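Task: encode each sequence below as structure tokens.

Item 1
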Amino acid sequence: MGNTTSQLTRIVGDKAADFTLPPDFFEGACYPQCSVQIIEISINSLPVEILLYIFSHFTVPEISRYILPVCTKWYNVGSDKSLWKSLKFGSGWAATKNFSASTIRRLIQQSPNLKTFEYHSNNYIARIIQTLAKHCPQLQTLEIQSKALTYRTVESLVINCPLITQLSLYRIEGNDYTKYMPLANLKNLRALEFSGCDWAVDELMLAMAKNCTKLQYLNLQSLSFLSDKSLSVLLSNSKGTLKTIMLCLWEITDKSFEQVAECTNLERLTIVPAVNISNSCFLKFQNLKRLETLTLSRLWSVSPSVCSAVFGHPNLKNLRDVDLVFADAVDNTVIKSLVQNALNLSVLSLERCTLITDDGMYSVVAWCKKLVYLNLEGMQGIHGTFLLGIDSTLPLLRVLRVDHCYMLEPAILKKILVRKKKSKLSVFTEVSHVYNEMESSLMRYPATHQARFQVNFGLLNVKNPGPFELSSYVFRKSIW
């Protein structure tokens, strides 16, 4: 084949060019002499259906800025109504600062089939909401973070967009709840999220509870003036449909928590903080048969025996993601009950659970074979012997957090960091010498000063229970 040549034809549009391959091109090949033909196809020759599929991966602002100006064909395809169903102006490239109010309003006007709208800005919010209400009657998902709205704006939105099923309002300024009373007429709501809104008071929530009887998602955070008076009614009216409940409220008590326990279809539950849950109420949580994700912070009022009985109940065997933060009720017995019951745990976070020791963690390593994420941040009762060979005992583990574990043996930590280079495990920790330097510097002060420094910096000494207990109290009051 030494003297053999082959013709390579390259077709570009309507033009063709011939190239002669070198004589030794096919030498050493195991296939017979052949001619190779490379064909380039212009993207404009693709069917409209394929172009629509490609353009569907772009956001509406991206379509408006980068696709429509290219050519006439792209303009026509990019203007298809099926692509203009979602407008999101949040963070990143699509932040509102990159678009003028007139541009945003024009995009809304060109999107009569708009289903989702997100807007995070104080600029021209009233005009934008009014434009949205006028041109987008099929709106279903609305997310807003802005300054205070007027009664007229809210009323116009509710009247013209009655199909809204998901409503998320973040840090909307003001404290006059009467401006937002029209929200009570959204009868199709399935997901409700209020965060940092001082106007979300009992009067408004009671009005919404009358019509919002099919909620599936409820997220209420940092609402200073919301109490059991309205929350218990809201939970009671939707207890048959609720699948996700996320509560970050200080004032609620067993009156609301008992309604949470009756939501038998619940799959995800977050209570931050859980300081007001009593033993009798927490026992009712064992009826949540479908619960898969559980987050509890500051579980202080529940005894370890009750906590162990709940986590060990067969109804909670479906738990896959458990996050317990500052949970004084969680000790070794509770952890053993949890891991022996919920064998499918993939995420476990025990941040600052100071009563758990290596004995309890050995049960985690022995039973949680499907664990992918393990967070031990701030646990002052562990020395780390259970971590030796953890990459082999927990083969699926990918993330291990041991930040601020000041009792962790440096030699054990060093072995873990060396072994992680040969495995897929990612270990997150702080530099241990910072703690050692601070600890050694304390020795120059009297015992009373040492205790004060231990409290301020979180340097705990299990041999001295006084500072240990005091430090735990300071952590609870300062971190969350």
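Item 2
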Amino acid sequence: MRPLWWPGDEVPDRGGGRTARRQPGHRTAVDRRRPARRRPRRARPPGGRRRRPGRVRPVAGGRPGRPLGRLLGPQPAARHRGQRRQGHRDGAGRHPGRAVPGGVADEPGGGRRAGPAGRHGGGSGDQVDHRGGGARRAGQRGPGTGCGVRRVRAALAGAAVAALVAGCGGDPATGPADATGGVTGTVSVFAAASLTESFTRIGRDFEAAHPGTTVVFNFAGSSGLATQINQGAPADVFASAAPRTMATVAEAGNADGTPLTFARNQLVIAVPAGNPKGITGLADLAGPDVKVALCADQVPCGAAARTALDAASVALTPVTLEPDVKGALSKVTLGEVDAALVYRTDTRAAAAKVTGVEFPESARAVTDYPIVALRDAPNPAGGRAFVEYVRSGRGQAVLAEAGFQAP
């Protein structure tokens, strides 16, 4: 027994008319990307300028028609249809465009949609829809507007601009692009506390010689700074007041190169201005009514003080042990002690408040100052440039003025 309608039977094609109205509704196709841009209109009454589509008339049983097709079954979504089974581009579930009048090309340069991924052995990400005159990747939003082409053109234009800018810069083989040797950014320097005044001035001079740089200092006891560096504190340069402390950083593999001595320093006895106790040497520090401040033994100034006292065979008990030389000096300036063993450069920096008393045993405790750029530094180029500047003639002049001896 033959069904009332067979897919091979004729269906009238009323080209140029509107889409059939008041027909059973169809579910929106899953590939539909946006709602229609206009609201549906009411059906026009008979006699309008356009003819309404005719009904589908079943053909009487047994009347020969076109070659029989397959029974109508579940159909895949539009984006998964085979290339040979495409229908018109308008209608329910399709692009909400107007029907093209008869005799007018459907779409300039139009073609079938890209076939489904499963039938072509590849993903849909490489399919290109050429409708509307512009190439775009399958799955991009909107009709064929050529967005893909514009994006490719924009990318090519950006690459051309980048190449032009790179061409205007300096050639690494011939030298840096700027007059400052390419040194910019922040340079972090960990330095012994006794270098505070001289390095602060050197830092300003370095910034003036390298526009675009900023030098940030961390002044403290050398041993504490070495511990911070070995524990991973970010720094570009380490300037120590003792080779032994610098060795702990180098042995840990944190030095970028060999540490170099850039200055030397000697101890003096710091007393309040006018020297009210009349102190002239180390032996006077052992008096019962003299309060003395020293640096802790683990920091360079404390180790040097212990060496000098041993050389003079003087035993004394300090009232305080400070973590760095600035701490020991501050006890004198604040009037909390009568004397302190500090570096010569520190008494010069505080000449308005303290007086430095020289003693011969200080020659037995000369302190060398090594400096090195650090490995894994945040700004390795800046760190190396700062080390070179400290060891240059301009850096050495500042150090000599502060009271340091040449290495």
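Check on item 2: The longest strand covers residues 185-192. Residues 185-264+368-402 form a domain with the D-Maltodextrin-Binding Protein; domain 2 fold (CATH 3.40.190.10).
End of task.
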